[in-house]
Each structure stands twice: as structure tokens, then as C-alpha cells.
UniProtKB/TrEMBL annotation:
InterPro entries the UniProt entry points to: AB_hydrolase_fold, Hydrolase_4, KH_dom-like_a/b, OsmC/Ohr_fam, OsmC/Ohrsf
PANTHER family noted in UniProt: OSMC-LIKE PROTEIN, PROTEIN INVOLVED IN RIMO-MEDIATED BETA-METHYLTHIOLATION OF RIBOSOMAL PROTEIN S12 YCAO
Residue span, Serine aminopeptidase S33 domain: 48-136
Top-level taxon of origin: Bacteria
Protein source organism: Christiangramia gaetbulicola
Phylogenetic placement of the source organism: Bacteria, Pseudomonadati, Bacteroidota, Flavobacteriia, Flavobacteriales
Coiled-coil stretches noted in the UniProt entry, renumbered to this chain: none
A Pfam entry, by short name: OsmC
Protein name per the record: Putative redox protein
Length: 404
């Protein structure tokens, strides 16, 4: 995937820094605008992982630091909720000018509330997603409840959120009280997806219930079971990204999937960041990747897992094809394949690494009404699998430079 550092001006002419996640093999037609949580930034786990997950599904995703946070200009103490909404509108204008206007807006926690308000001002938005968002802005005050009297009397106070100190001014409190989230929801006619964890200890699941009651149809709710408020576990944030992409396909017109003209041709496309590789095989799109320990993002199988998958799939298909032709009652064929480099038997130079050869171990489970001779024959047929023949012979690979 492509990862671009971008910047744009907000309505106060302050420079906001962002990251644009793009699929490698094509310019996306649909863009998503992501709003991070209160006092967070664009590089937190949730915005980063969700953006990568959505980019792997073909979307362009812009996440950025709100004014006064992360790498963006400005002082946080001079900002408020309305300013966050304005920043989102500025971000949408940037996308419209430089790429395509955002079709989806996603907001996490207080960013979810900001996404709801901003969606009313961004004409291009066709779908809205909130993640662990509060149903009322007054809930945010719980972060600095003990300092409210100081803020009221002194005009500001220093508070601690997540181990970090922030200065909060009275105008921030006043701005929260002047924005009515329920009224905003009543005015929205855009499809809305509410995602919330029942185990959220910062914004309880009751907030999702209130949001759902206040919203108009079409509206959807998905439970992020066992996730924490920050979606700090990578699998939880990637799961959320996958669900958003699946849900949005109902409301966002998807571009036609390009197909390769040549039979049996596949294409693998990798940009200069990471190892997440976009693959087209016929009309099918998917990704390959490397595990995190190898520097990847683990968004898809690695190349050897893909090879092993080909062998496993081909084996199961070949056995079933034969059994069906013979009208044998085979209920299911399950093939397990593992790959490793091992020393060849009777190896004369086993102490040398180069003496190791590619080794695929295959275990086959065949279920059905079969006698021993039939099972024995099916196990022989497994070796007739075309991929098995390819891997067990010396294949020829011809390589040439392709013109752009």
C-alpha cells in the first residue's frame, strides 16, 4: 500500500498534518475521512490500523491530527469541539481538491461525535461510522470533573488524560454544552453505522443505545465484543476496518473490479512502504503480507502460505473431482499443508544451509462412506493434483522487464 504524508490549512490558516493511506495498484474512487479520539493523534493504534485495513479493501483513507495535537499547528488549550468539526470540514475540502471528496466519514470516541456534526456540512458523505462514541458531549467532562470548579473560577486548569497533561479552558466546556448531539442525529438522513464494545469502560454501551434510538433509518449497530475503548489490540481495530468496508459496500457505489486479460495471469503490486501487496488474480482482489516480526503488517498470508494454500486447495479439489466422477460418497476433504526448508534424506552436506530443500508436509482428512481401497485410491489421486506436479518438478521461470 502507499502511505503519503500530507498537509493542509484549516479555516484559521493553521497547518494540519495528515497521513493518506492508499491501495498500491490503483487510484481509489472512494475516500474515507477518519476523526481520531479526544487528545489522541493520527498515529494511535485505532486510526492507523483501521486506515490500513480499509486501504487494503481499495479505499483511500485520510487521518490527520486535529489542531494543537500531534504534528499539527496550534495550541490544544485554544481549541474546542467546534474547532474539531471545522478541521474535518477543511480536511474534506482538501480531499475534494486534491483527490476525491470523502464518501465516508469515520469517527472514534469524541471523534465520532465530531464526525456526526461534520457530516451535515460535507455534501459528499454518503455513510457515517462511529466507534465507541458518546451519545452526549457532556460525557467528555468526566475526564476533568475534579477540575471543573478550578476551570470555572480560574478560567482554565491542567488535566491529565492517559498519562499526558493538557490545559483546558472554560471556553472548551461552554462549547461542549452548546452543541446538541441528539438534535444533530435527528437531522441526519445519511446511513449510520454505530460500532461499540460492550466492555468499554470509558464510554459505556448505553451511549450506543442512545445514539441508535436518536438516529433515523437507515442505521446499523455492530458489537465490538471484548475490545477496549481505544481498540488497542490490533486484531480489534483491523476487525473494525473490515466490518466498515463490508457495511459501506451496501451504500457506496463500488467501482468495477479490473480484470487481467491473460488467462492464468496474476499481478502483485507493492509500493515503497511496508510489504502489504495488492494482488489481482482474474477478477479477484486480495492481499499478501509479511508477519510483524518480519517488518510487515500481517494483513494477509505471506508468499509461502499462498503457495501452500494453492497445494492444499488443489489437493482437495482433485480428490473431490475424482470421487464425484466415480460417484463415491465423499462428504468432505480437508487438506493441511505446512512448509519448511529441511535437509534432504541421505544428504552428504547436511551441515551446509544450501543443502536444505523446500519441503511441504501434507495431511489429508477424507470423510464419507468409503472402504479401505477407495481411501487408498484417493490418496494416490492426491499426487495427481496439478499443483503437486508443478511443485515436485523443476519448473521453468522466465523473467523479463515489463514496460510501464
Amino acid at each position: 500500500m502507499k502511505k503519503l504524508d500530507v498537509s493542509f490549512k484549516n479555516s484559521d490558516s493553521k497547518t494540519l498534518q495528515g497521513v493518506l493511506e492508499l491501495p498500491t495498484n490503483k487510484k481509489p474512487e472512494n475516500f474515507i475521512l477518519f476523526a481520531h479520539c479526544f487528545t489522541c493523534n493520527k498515529n494511535f493504534h485505532a486510526p492507523s490500523n483501521i486506515s490500513k485495513s480499509l486501504a487494503s479493501k481499495g479505499y483511500g483513507v485520510l487521518r490527520f491530527d486535529f489542531t494543537g495535537l500531534g504534528e499539527s499547528d496550534g495550541n490544544f488549550e485554544d481549541t474546542n469541539f467546534s474547532g474539531n468539526v471545522d478541521d474535518l470540514v477543511s480536511a474534506a475540502s482538501f480531499l475534494k481538491k486534491e483527490y476525491n471528496a470523502p464518501a465516508i466519514i469515520v469517527g472514534h470516541s469524541l471523534g465520532g461525535a465530531a464526525a456526526l456534526f461534520a457530516a451535515k456540512e460535507i455534501d459528499s458523505v454518503k455513510a457515517i461510522v462511529t466507534i465507541n462514541a458518546p451519545s452526549n458531549l457532556a460525557h467528555v467532562q468526566k475526564h476533568f470533573e475534579s477540575s471543573l470548579s478550578e476551570i470555572e473560577n480560574e478560567g482554565s486548569a491542567k488535566i491529565n488524560i492517559g498519562g499526558r497533561s493538557f490545559q483546558i479552558k472554560k471556553q472548551f466546556i461552554d462549547d461542549l454544552e452548546n452543541n446538541n448531539e441528539s438534535k444533530t442525529l435527528e437531522e441526519i438522513r445519511t446511513p449510520l453505522l454505530i460500532m461499540h464494545s460492550p466492555q468499554d469502560k470509558i464510554v459505556s454501551i448505553k451511549h450506543a443505545e442512545e445514539l441508535y434510538k436518536s438516529a433515523r433509518h437507515p442505521k446499523s449497530f455492530i458489537s465490538l465484543e471484548k475490545a477496549d475503548h481505544m481498540l488497542s489490540t490490533r486484531s480489534d481495530s483491523e476487525y473494525a476496518g473490515g466490518l466498515i468496508a463490508a457495511w459501506a459496500s451496501k451504500y457506496i457505489e463500488q467501482p468495477e473490479v479490473p480484470e487481467l486479460d491473460t488467462d492464468h495471469e496474476v499481478m502483485a503490486n507493492l509500493g515503497k512502504h511496508g510489504y502489504t501487496t495488492q494482488i489481482i488474480a482474474g477478477k479477484h482482489h486480495f492481499v499478501a503480507d509479511e508477519p510483524e516480526k518480519a517488518g510487515g503488517s500481517d494483513l494477509g498470508p505471506n508468499p509461502y502460505e499462498l503457495v501452500s494454500s494453492g497445494l492444499a486447495a488443489c489437493t482437495s479439489m482433485t480428490i473431490q473431482m475424482y470421487a464425484r466422477r466415480k460417484e463415491w460418497k465423499v462428504e468432505n476433504v480437508e487438506t493441511h499443508v505446512s512448509y519448511a526448508k529441511k535437509h534432504a534424506e541421505d544428504c552428504e552436506n547436511c551441515e551446509k544451509d544450501q543443502a536444505k530443500i523446500d519441503s511441504f508436509e501434507r495431511e489429508i482428512s477424507i470423510q464419507g462412506e468409503l472402504d479401505e481401497k477407495q481411501i487408498e485410491r484417493l490418496m494416490q489421486i492426491a499426487d495427481k493434483c496439478p499443483v503437486h506436479k508443478t511443485l515436485s518438478s523443476k519448473a521453468q521461470i522466465e523473467t523479463k522487464l515489463r514496460s510501464s
